[in-house]
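Record beta-glucosidase, 728 aa.
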Amino acid sequence: MSLPLARRPVTALAVCAAALALTASAAAAPESVADSPAAVLPYQDPSAPVPDRVTDLLARMTLDDKLGQMTQIEKDALVPRSDLAACRIGSVLSGGDSTVSPNNAQTWADTYDSLQRTALTTPLGIPMIYGIDAVHGHNAVRGATLFPHDIGLGATRDPALVQRIGRAVAEEVSDTGIDWGFAPCLCVARDDRWGRTYESYGETPELPSSLTTFVTGLQGETLGEGPAPVPATAKHYLGDGGTAGGVDQGDTKLSEAELRAVHLPPFREAVRRGVGAVMLSYSSWNGVRSHANSYLVTDLLKGELGFGGFVVSDWAAVDQFDGQSGFTGAEITTAVNAGVDMVMVPHDYRKFLTLLRGEVTAGRIAQSRIDDANRRILTKKFQLGLFERPFTDRAYTPTVGSAAHRELARQAVRASQVLLKNEGGVLPLPKSARLFVAGKSADDIGNQSGGWTVGWQGRSGPVTDGTTVLEGIRAAVTDPSRVTYDRYGNGIDSRYRAAVAVVGETPYAEGRGDRPGGLGLDQEDLRTPARLKASGVPVVVVLVSGRPLDVSGRLPDWKALLAAWLPGTEGSGVSDVLFGDYAPTGKLPVSWPRTSSQEPVNDGDGKDPLFPYGCGLTYSGAGPTPPPAPATCTARFRAASSWQGGHQAEVTVENTGSTSLTGWSVEWDLGGSRVTSLWNGSLTTGDGRATVRNAAFDGSLRPGDTTAFGFTAEGPAGTPARTAPGAE
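=>
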């Protein structure tokens, strides 16, 4: 099917021609599709292989067509809108505070379709791709379902649940026409003082690696072959969770072996899953910015890992190299030659395009690099089906904030709750009891949703539709009149069975969320539980926060502590656990420090946290882990990379038996090597041999299923003799 294409407006061309100083090409201009409307050209043929379509289209594109594809601009910076076609812009985004009015799914869809119609008026009719930060749901849209932020999903330890969430997010995003999500965040957060800790699934590489199932949920098993596909973006590459002091956009000071062992595995797994895009980090590695690091981007990501999607910069990141406002040609050349395929400009696109064109014509950026970037971008557009289906699929309109998606979010909330203290079995609470509820986050949908909620930094108050924790409590009890609420705890007396204090952080995002001075509770959150305790009533604290907070000094005053993280719009998931409809099953995705001065504290670093990584109580013992079913498995070793004095390897474990495995182990002779780090399993060594047993999340393998673990080691990268028996 050919698209309804039209010639570009002459007036729009004149506007952008002045900005870009377009010149006639020495070669004949490529044939315009609009000049031969009856023809179905190879790139327009949906039955043709995608590589052939890309090759055909590239041969028809001018340099300015190609440079436009590498340019992403903020929707609100597009003035006049005709510049979208005149400047051949390939991608539009909505930043954290970008919105529409009225803010609902219908208006978003109408806005998208209007922009797409403009994009399609170019001679070649190349559709735009529209990106947005859908980091815990379609969080820019009022009324969308908001899921727990990633740190809460990390506490669930449930890859299948996270994949279902990815699918739900894809449906809600597709409903608004938007076709590209800037998620998941695969950072490994190593210092809780960092303001983006809540965007991380956890502090160990195996946890975010296991939850890259979100990529599959968002995109489908194969991009474009299922309903409502949305390309995922693995971000932020590489090491942004490991900056010194937890400083946002700081410097990650690690050896290459440490960087590979801690921060690379989640991206490796995302690439294995076919992630459509990778967004680079503002941060640096040993003083070199990620956006300027050709070794990390071109050699490691695109070369060694075999990433076939496209690399996008972060917001205005390329305009930061020299510390001055405003693009320079040198900044653009450095980024593009490092491997950046699409630059999130996001505002001054005319200057950017002029400079980019100048760098190419001067030979400082090779035409082959421009073609490679375009091939990567266009491949995803073809795979996504944008050339055949460029407009919003209104069939998904009912999914935004649907009952089914909200029920899934409620399930995720209750699965994310981590019970850290339950003295005297105060929890679960009786539904018939007289209860007192207090705290600034008990009845605040904005606080419980956190940053990136209908705005970049988020804000307190009724910012969107949903159920607060207080509303969930009142809905759960047998008589709502027996629940009293006062934010500050005023009016409590000894008549109450228990008091629930819902306290914690107010919303923030990167930059403003950094807490170098400590992670203590604010004065209101100190006074409110203290006022409740003074009544003699047992105090249950529900902590709404994007990271562990410094609570050790107050913990003796509380009978129970429940880490609720940032649960999103479905506060009833918290009450499900408080009242015992569901026992808590969440496990800490990060180590909980005794005091802020202990930061950074991480699993295996020898420090003694208040609550260790993986800690989590429940209401009744689940009993010992059942023994694994008899089965057999094989292990395939592959040397992934090597350097002087060391190497990195991957081992793929496959269940070759006829029954399911509930655990596995792999053994091999070290041959003089020493394993320095390992992910996706647990390691023991002795007598010159290494044994790796499954992690909690990857032990179950059905017949024919595979999983993988990796390690770095000192010594030569030989092929070890190994066995892979079922777990004992």
